[in-house]
Protein backbone atom coordinates (compact mmCIF):
# COMPACT_ATOMS: atom_id res chain seq x y z
CA UNK A 1 0.00 0.00 0.00
CA UNK A 2 1.50 3.32 -1.09
CA UNK A 3 1.51 6.29 1.26
CA UNK A 4 -0.35 8.48 -1.23
CA UNK A 5 -3.40 6.20 -1.00
CA UNK A 6 -4.07 7.50 2.52
CA UNK A 7 -4.26 11.13 1.43
CA UNK A 8 -6.89 12.11 -1.16
CA UNK A 9 -5.19 15.53 -1.24
CA UNK A 10 -1.79 14.00 -2.11
CA UNK A 11 -1.61 15.74 -5.50
CA UNK A 12 -2.25 19.09 -3.78
CA UNK A 13 1.00 18.73 -1.86
CA UNK A 14 4.24 19.95 -3.34
CA UNK A 15 6.84 17.41 -4.42
CA UNK A 16 8.96 18.49 -1.46
CA UNK A 17 6.08 17.93 0.98
CA UNK A 18 5.34 14.53 -0.57
CA UNK A 19 9.00 13.55 -0.19
CA UNK A 20 9.08 14.70 3.45
CA UNK A 21 6.06 12.51 4.25
CA UNK A 22 7.42 9.53 2.34
CA UNK A 23 10.88 9.77 3.90
CA UNK A 24 9.49 10.19 7.43
CA UNK A 25 7.08 7.24 7.28
CA UNK A 26 8.35 4.12 9.04
CA UNK A 27 6.77 0.71 8.42
CA UNK A 28 5.89 -1.23 11.58
CA UNK A 29 4.15 -4.49 12.46
CA UNK A 30 2.38 -4.90 15.80
CA UNK A 31 0.98 -8.07 17.30
CA UNK A 32 -2.58 -8.53 18.54
CA UNK A 33 -2.94 -7.17 22.07
CA UNK A 34 -0.12 -4.62 21.76
CA UNK A 35 -0.91 -1.20 23.26
CA UNK A 36 0.61 1.14 20.66
CA UNK A 37 -0.31 4.41 22.32
CA UNK A 38 -1.05 4.94 25.99
CA UNK A 39 -2.56 8.35 26.73
CA UNK A 40 -1.32 11.92 26.45
CA UNK A 41 2.14 11.18 27.85
CA UNK A 42 2.79 8.90 24.88
CA UNK A 43 3.24 10.49 21.44
CA UNK A 44 3.94 7.70 18.96
CA UNK A 45 3.05 9.68 15.85
CA UNK A 46 0.44 9.46 13.13
CA UNK A 47 -0.67 5.87 12.41
CA UNK A 48 -1.73 4.81 8.91
CA UNK A 49 -3.16 1.28 8.87
CA UNK A 50 -2.05 -0.92 5.97
CA UNK A 51 -3.90 -3.98 7.22
CA UNK A 52 -5.27 -5.18 10.52
CA UNK A 53 -7.51 -3.68 13.18
CA UNK A 54 -6.96 -1.24 16.03
CA UNK A 55 -9.26 0.10 18.71
CA UNK A 56 -9.16 3.48 20.41
CA UNK A 57 -10.38 3.47 24.00
CA UNK A 58 -10.42 5.52 27.17
CA UNK A 59 -9.89 4.20 30.68
CA UNK A 60 -11.43 5.47 33.92
CA UNK A 61 -9.48 6.00 37.14
CA UNK A 62 -10.96 2.71 38.35
CA UNK A 63 -9.53 0.92 35.31
CA UNK A 64 -12.78 0.46 33.39
CA UNK A 65 -12.43 0.79 29.61
CA UNK A 66 -14.75 1.82 26.82
CA UNK A 67 -14.05 1.61 23.08
CA UNK A 68 -14.69 4.92 21.33
CA UNK A 69 -13.97 3.77 17.77
CA UNK A 70 -12.10 1.22 15.68
CA UNK A 71 -9.60 1.60 12.86
CA UNK A 72 -9.28 -0.60 9.77
CA UNK A 73 -7.36 -0.78 6.48
CA UNK A 74 -6.51 2.70 5.08
CA UNK A 75 -7.69 4.46 8.26
CA UNK A 76 -5.58 7.19 9.86
CA UNK A 77 -5.19 7.52 13.62
CA UNK A 78 -4.55 11.06 14.90
CA UNK A 79 -4.90 10.48 18.64
CA UNK A 80 -1.61 8.56 18.67
CA UNK A 81 -0.02 11.93 17.86
CA UNK A 82 -1.59 13.54 20.92
CA UNK A 83 1.30 15.98 21.46
CA UNK A 84 0.19 17.89 18.34
CA UNK A 85 -3.45 18.00 19.51
CA UNK A 86 -3.33 20.50 22.35
CA UNK A 87 -7.13 20.92 22.40
CA UNK A 88 -7.70 17.25 23.36
CA UNK A 89 -8.36 17.11 27.08
CA UNK A 90 -8.75 13.35 27.57
CA UNK A 91 -6.37 10.42 27.27
CA UNK A 92 -6.97 7.98 24.42
CA UNK A 93 -5.17 4.64 24.22
CA UNK A 94 -4.69 2.61 21.03
CA UNK A 95 -4.53 -1.19 21.03
CA UNK A 96 -4.11 -3.72 18.22
CA UNK A 97 -7.15 -6.03 18.07
CA UNK A 98 -5.49 -8.06 15.32
CA UNK A 99 -1.95 -8.35 13.99
CA UNK A 100 -1.53 -5.04 12.19
CA UNK A 101 0.83 -3.56 9.60
CA UNK A 102 1.03 0.22 9.60
CA UNK A 103 3.00 3.33 8.75
CA UNK A 104 4.13 5.68 11.52
CA UNK A 105 4.76 9.35 10.71
CA UNK A 106 6.48 11.31 13.50
CA UNK A 107 4.23 13.94 15.08
CA UNK A 108 6.68 16.81 14.61
CA UNK A 109 6.99 16.12 10.88
CA UNK A 110 3.22 15.96 10.35
CA UNK A 111 2.60 19.06 12.47
CA UNK A 112 5.15 21.01 10.45
CA UNK A 113 3.55 19.99 7.17
CA UNK A 114 0.00 20.83 8.28
CA UNK A 115 1.27 24.31 9.16
CA UNK A 116 2.62 24.65 5.61
CA UNK A 117 -0.18 23.02 3.63
CA UNK A 118 -3.80 24.19 3.81
CA UNK A 119 -5.12 21.07 1.98
CA UNK A 120 -3.35 18.77 4.45
CA UNK A 121 -4.58 20.85 7.40
CA UNK A 122 -8.16 20.76 6.10
CA UNK A 123 -7.98 17.01 5.53
CA UNK A 124 -6.69 16.53 9.07
CA UNK A 125 -9.62 18.56 10.39
CA UNK A 126 -12.01 16.35 8.39
CA UNK A 127 -10.56 13.26 10.06
CA UNK A 128 -10.95 14.88 13.49
CA UNK A 129 -14.57 15.80 12.70
CA UNK A 130 -15.27 12.22 11.65
CA UNK A 131 -13.81 10.84 14.89
CA UNK A 132 -15.79 13.39 16.90
CA UNK A 133 -18.97 12.18 15.18
CA UNK A 134 -18.17 8.63 16.25
CA UNK A 135 -17.65 9.76 19.84
CA UNK A 136 -20.98 11.63 19.77
CA UNK A 137 -22.66 8.50 18.36
CA UNK A 138 -21.21 6.54 21.29
CA UNK A 139 -22.48 9.09 23.82
CA UNK A 140 -25.94 8.86 22.25
CA UNK A 141 -25.85 5.08 22.64
CA UNK A 142 -24.81 5.26 26.28
CA UNK A 143 -27.35 7.93 27.23
CA UNK A 144 -30.41 6.82 25.30
CA UNK A 145 -30.15 3.12 24.39
CA UNK A 146 -30.90 0.24 26.75
CA UNK A 147 -27.98 -2.03 27.51
CA UNK A 148 -29.60 -5.01 25.81
CA UNK A 149 -29.75 -2.93 22.61
CA UNK A 150 -26.12 -1.84 22.96
CA UNK A 151 -25.00 -5.43 23.54
CA UNK A 152 -27.03 -6.67 20.58
CA UNK A 153 -25.46 -3.95 18.40
CA UNK A 154 -21.98 -4.95 19.52
CA UNK A 155 -22.57 -8.64 18.77
CA UNK A 156 -23.95 -7.79 15.34
CA UNK A 157 -20.95 -5.57 14.58
CA UNK A 158 -18.52 -8.27 15.73
CA UNK A 159 -20.26 -10.90 13.58
CA UNK A 160 -19.95 -8.61 10.56
CA UNK A 161 -16.28 -7.83 11.23
CA UNK A 162 -15.32 -11.46 11.76
CA UNK A 163 -17.56 -12.87 9.05
CA UNK A 164 -18.86 -15.44 11.52
CA UNK A 165 -21.69 -15.98 13.99
CA UNK A 166 -19.21 -17.69 16.34
CA UNK A 167 -17.43 -14.93 18.24
CA UNK A 168 -14.25 -15.84 20.10
CA UNK A 169 -14.36 -13.10 22.71
CA UNK A 170 -14.48 -13.07 26.50
CA UNK A 171 -17.23 -11.40 28.47
CA UNK A 172 -14.58 -9.20 30.10
CA UNK A 173 -13.47 -8.00 26.66
CA UNK A 174 -17.07 -7.19 25.74
CA UNK A 175 -17.36 -5.19 28.95
CA UNK A 176 -14.20 -3.27 28.03
CA UNK A 177 -15.65 -2.38 24.65
CA UNK A 178 -18.95 -1.21 26.12
CA UNK A 179 -17.64 0.45 29.28
CA UNK A 180 -19.59 -1.94 31.47
CA UNK A 181 -18.68 -4.32 34.29
CA UNK A 182 -18.21 -7.94 33.25
CA UNK A 183 -20.98 -8.99 35.66
CA UNK A 184 -23.48 -6.83 33.79
CA UNK A 185 -22.43 -8.39 30.48
CA UNK A 186 -22.70 -11.87 31.98
CA UNK A 187 -26.25 -11.27 33.20
CA UNK A 188 -27.43 -9.89 29.87
CA UNK A 189 -25.75 -12.64 27.83
CA UNK A 190 -27.35 -15.21 30.12
CA UNK A 191 -30.70 -13.57 29.41
CA UNK A 192 -29.95 -13.65 25.66
CA UNK A 193 -29.14 -17.35 25.99
CA UNK A 194 -32.39 -18.06 27.82
CA UNK A 195 -34.21 -16.29 24.97
CA UNK A 196 -32.46 -18.44 22.38
CA UNK A 197 -30.44 -15.58 20.86
CA UNK A 198 -26.97 -16.88 21.74
CA UNK A 199 -25.21 -19.92 23.09
CA UNK A 200 -22.38 -19.39 25.58
CA UNK A 201 -19.22 -21.36 26.22
CA UNK A 202 -15.84 -20.43 27.64
CA UNK A 203 -14.44 -17.50 25.63
CA UNK A 204 -17.09 -17.93 22.91
CA UNK A 205 -20.44 -16.32 22.11
CA UNK A 206 -22.34 -18.22 19.40
CA UNK A 207 -25.16 -16.20 17.82
CA UNK A 208 -28.01 -18.65 17.29
CA UNK A 209 -30.78 -16.32 16.10
CA UNK A 210 -29.42 -13.46 14.03
CA UNK A 211 -32.84 -12.24 12.89
CA UNK A 212 -34.19 -11.81 16.43
CA UNK A 213 -30.97 -10.10 17.47
CA UNK A 214 -31.39 -7.63 14.61
CA UNK A 215 -34.98 -6.97 15.66
CA UNK A 216 -33.72 -6.15 19.13
CA UNK A 217 -31.35 -3.57 17.64
CA UNK A 218 -32.82 -2.34 14.32
CA UNK A 219 -30.61 0.77 14.20
CA UNK A 220 -27.65 1.15 11.86
CA UNK A 221 -24.62 3.32 12.27
CA UNK A 222 -23.88 5.61 9.31
Q: Topology of this structure?
A:
Elements: H1 15-24, E1 26-30, E2 35-38, E3 46-51, E4 54-59, E5 65-71, E6 76-77, E7 93-96, E8 100-105, H2 107-116, H3 118-144, H4 147-162, E9 166-167, H5 171-178, H6 182-194, E10 198-201, E11 204-207, H7 210-216
Antiparallel strand pairs: 1-8, 2-7, 3-6, 3-8, 4-5, 4-7, 9-11, 10-11
Summary, kept brief:
With 222 residues, the chain is an alpha+beta fold. It has seven helices and eleven strands.
| Cα-to-Cα separation, first versus last residue | 26 Å
Q: Please tell me the overall pLDDT.
A: 90
Proportion of beta-strand residues: 15-25%
Helix content: 40-55%
Rg computed from alpha carbons, rounded to a whole number of angstroms: 19 Å
Query: In what order do the strands lie side by side in the largest sheet?
Result: 1-8-3-6
Q: What oligomerization state is this entry in?
A: single chain
What count of helical segments does DSSP give? 7
Q: Poorly predicted ranges (pLDDT <50, ≥5 residues)?
A: none
Structure classification? alpha+beta
General form: elongated
SSE arrangement, N to C: HEEEEEEEEHHHEHHEEH
List how many beta strands DSSP finds: 11
Biggest β-sheet description: 4 strands, antiparallel
GO molecular function: DNA binding; DNA-binding transcription factor activity
Domain HTH crp-type: 145-211
GO cellular component, one term: cytosol
Protein name: Crp/Fnr family transcriptional regulator
Amino acid sequence: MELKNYFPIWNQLTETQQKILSDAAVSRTVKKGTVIHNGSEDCVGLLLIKSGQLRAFIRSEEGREITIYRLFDLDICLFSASCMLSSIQFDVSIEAEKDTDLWVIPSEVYKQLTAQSAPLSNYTNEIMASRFSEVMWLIDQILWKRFDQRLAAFLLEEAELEGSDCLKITQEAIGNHLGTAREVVTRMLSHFQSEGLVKLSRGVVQITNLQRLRKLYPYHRD
